[in-house]
Amino acid sequence: MDLDPLYMLEVLPQLLKFLPVTLLIAVASMFFAILIGLFVALIRFLRIPVLDQLAQLYVSLFRGIPTLVQLFLIYYGLPQLFPFMTTMDALTAAIVGFSLKESSYLAEIFRAALTSVDGGQLEAGLATGMTAPQVYRRYIIPQAAYNALPATGNIFISLLKETSVAFTLGLTELFAEAKILASASFRFFETFLVVGLVYWLLVIVYSWFQGRLETRLSRAYVR
Amino acid sequence: MIDVSDLRKSFFGKSGENVVLDGVSLQVGTGEVVAIIGPSGSGKSTLLRCLNLLETPDAGSISIDDVTVRAPGIPGAQVRALRKKTAMVFQGYNLFRNRTALANVMDPMTAQGTPKAQAEQTARELLTRVGIAETTMQQYPVTLSGGQQQRVSIARALAVTPHAILLDEPTSALDPELVGEVLAVIRDLAQQDMTLVIVTHEMAFAAEVADRVVFIDGGRIVEQGPAREVIRSPREERTRRFLREAVSEPAQRSAADPAADAPSEPLGHDPLRPDGLPG
Ligand SMILES: Nc1ncnc2c1ncn2[C@@H]1O[C@H](COP(=O)(O)OP(=O)(O)OP(=O)(O)O)[C@@H](O)[C@H]1O
Ligand SMILES: [Mg+2]
User: Which residues does the UniProt record annotate as the domain ABC transporter (chain B) (predicted)?
Assistant: First the structure.
C-alpha cells in the first residue's frame, strides 16, 4: 500500500491558507440567506396577497434547480443578458448563488417556526397597547428563531460543505486548492483525505458551538 | 365608564352567516364589577374581544373613558387609543414565553416609553401585590404553575394602568386547587375599585364579587341586574334554565377552592356566601 503520512502533514498548512475563502463564502451566504429567508417567511406567514404567491414561486424555483445550474446561470448566464454583470467576480457569484438557494430552504424552516409560536402572545401584546411590529420583534421572532435553530444549523452545515462546488466557477477555495495540489503531487488519496478531514473538523467545531447556544437559549423553554 | 351601543358582529363560514353579537348595548360604570355569564357559544368572548378590538365589530359604537370608536371603518390610531384604555386577562394566560415573569410585567410599560428602572420598580410592586415572590419573578413562564402564570398576567394587565380590565374565563384553564389563589387576587382588585368585566362560569364567585351580572344568550343580553338577584332569582326562563344546567355540572371545582370559600353544595341551594359582599 502506498500511503504517505508525511505528505499529509505537509499539505495541511498549504490547504489551510484557503480556509478563509471557504468560510467567507459560507458565512456571507448564510448571512444573506437568513435575511432573505426571514423576509420571505414573514410574507408567507402573514399571507400578504400577491407577494405571497411570488414568495411561493421563489421558494419553489430556488429549491427546484440544482445548485450547480444556479451558479452557472448567475456567473456565466447573467452577463450575457446584462453586459454590466461581466465585472462580477466568481466570489460574488458564488455568494449570490448560495444565498438564494439557502434562503429558499430557510424561508420554509422559518415559516414553520413562526407557525409554531403560540399566537395568544400576539393578542396579549396588542391588548396591552403594543403594536404588531413590536410584538413580532420582541416575542414572536425570537421564539421562532429558537424553534428554527436546529434546522438552520443543518442548513449551515450542508452549506459549509457545498461551498466546494464553487471551484467550478474557477474560484480557489479549500477543495479547488486540494485538486491543484493533488494533480501536482499525484498524491490524490492523501490530499483529498486531508481536505475531507478539514471539512469534518469544521462541522464538528460548528456543531459544538450550536449545541452550547441551544443549551443557553433553552432556559426559557425547558422546565 | 364603558358604553357599548348596539354592537353587531357576524362570522362567515361554510354554512353562511353566523350572527354572534346581535345588537348588544351595555354600560359599565367606573369602579363597577360586571360578570358576563351565558352558555357556550353565546358570544361572551366575542363581546369582550370587541371591547379592545381584537375582534372588529361590524357595527355599533364603543366608548371607554374619553375614547369613542364607531364601527365599521375604525382608523388604526383609534384602535390603539382604545386598546390602551383596557387590559385583558386570557383564559390561557398568554404570557410572553421568552421573557421572565418580571419582564412580562415590565414590557408593556417600556413599550410605551417608561424608563427601564421605573418599569422594573413598578413591576416588582405589582408582582408582590399578586403574591409572586421575589425569587419567582426571575423565572420563565414554563417553570410557573398555572395559578402563578395567571397572577403574573393580572400584574401585566395592571402595568398599563388601564381604565378597565377585561377577564375572559380567567380560572377555566386552572387545576381546581389553583383557582382560589387567582380568584383571591381578582377579589382584591374588585375591592380596590378597579373596573372589571369578567366572563366567568364561577357563579358563586360572580354572585359574591360582581356588582352586576349580565346573562347573554344567542348574541343578545337576555337579562341583567344586581348579581345576587340574577343568580338567585332570575326573571327569565332562559336564565333559569342556564343556571340550572350550570349547577348540575360537577361541582368539584368550587369544592376545592379554599381561598374563594365557595359553597361545595350545588348553587341551587344558596349560591351566596353568608359573609358575601352586598350585590
Ligand atoms: N374567529 C372566529 N371565526 C369564526 N367563528 C367564530 C370565531 N370566534 C368565535 N366564533 C363563533 O362565534 C360564536 C361565539 O363564540 P364565543 O367565543 O364568543 O362564545 P363564548 O360565549 O365565549 O363561548 P364559551 O363559553 O365556549 O367560551 C361561536 O359560534 C363561535 O364558533
Ligand atoms: Mg369564550
Answer: 2-243
